[in-house]
Amino acid sequence: MTASAPTSTTRTITLRNGLSVTVEEYGDAAAGGSGALVLHGGAGPRSVAGFAAALSQHAYVVVPTHPGFDGTPRPESTDSIADLAVAYLDLIDELNLHAVMVLGSSIGGWIATEMGLRDNRARISALVLLAATGVKPEAPLEIADPAKLGPVRTGELAFHKPELRLNPATLSEQQKAGMAANQRTQAIYAAVSYDPKLQGRLHRIAVPVLVLAGEQDGIVPLAYERALADSFPRATFRSIAEAGHFPHIEQPGSVFEAIGDFVDNEVKPDGE
């Protein structure tokens, strides 16, 4: 799929609990009340911007910036993955959306999973998890910690294509400071790299789930993603060749093909 750089708008929405969330919106918000919520990982909202723009050719898309990322305010009371999950369910309510597909990258996938567990208004129609984290890895599997690896090694493990790897020498001091601030914010939300109790609750998620994993992901092992998929009662697992931790960036065509098949075979039968 080729995106034509659709226009997006940015606004700040204040939720019922007083939390302010900055969102980027693509497409027509009035298109039937349905839509897609795209949740970024530790790399920030820009890491899913192209993906969201392409997705908006088919749906209204909302991309929230997790409070504290990219200089947005974060109240001290919002300090966990669960807090973000509840906030984004409130966001869906505020936007009056239904049949929402929630797509999350890395810890965004963890947030999406927590949303699925708490969706008592049945607003969510499906989850798409891209190189998601959240459950405890079984030894000898490990999830790499970018904070310990540094940007160069993280790039080598995160991207299959060398040209996509970050070169710190090309960054301004402002960009470096922004990345460091985002990393500190992620560390607040994910004080531990997984929830030891999460896997035991995933059987309660009734909606269909698509788990996508890059075959060359050096951050989250492929075997971890297979085990994650096995934890859901209605999961589809797809590996993406020649892709690392950001398959939606390295192989967008393959990712959208997988999502299309998933919608046609697993999601639409429920809604038609």
TrEMBL record:
<keyword id="KW-0378">Hydrolase</keyword>
<dbReference type="Pfam" id="PF12697">
    <property type="entry name" value="Abhydrolase_6"/>
</dbReference>
<dbReference type="InterPro" id="IPR000073">
    <property type="entry name" value="AB_hydrolase_1"/>
</dbReference>
<dbReference type="InterPro" id="IPR050266">
    <property type="entry name" value="AB_hydrolase_sf"/>
</dbReference>
<feature type="domain" description="AB hydrolase-1">
    <location>
        <begin position="37"/>
        <end position="257"/>
    </location>
</feature>
<dbReference type="GO" id="GO:0016787">
    <property type="term" value="F:hydrolase activity"/>
</dbReference>
<dbReference type="InterPro" id="IPR029058">
    <property type="entry name" value="AB_hydrolase_fold"/>
</dbReference>
<protein>
    <submittedName>
        <fullName>Alpha/beta fold hydrolase</fullName>
    </submittedName>
</protein>
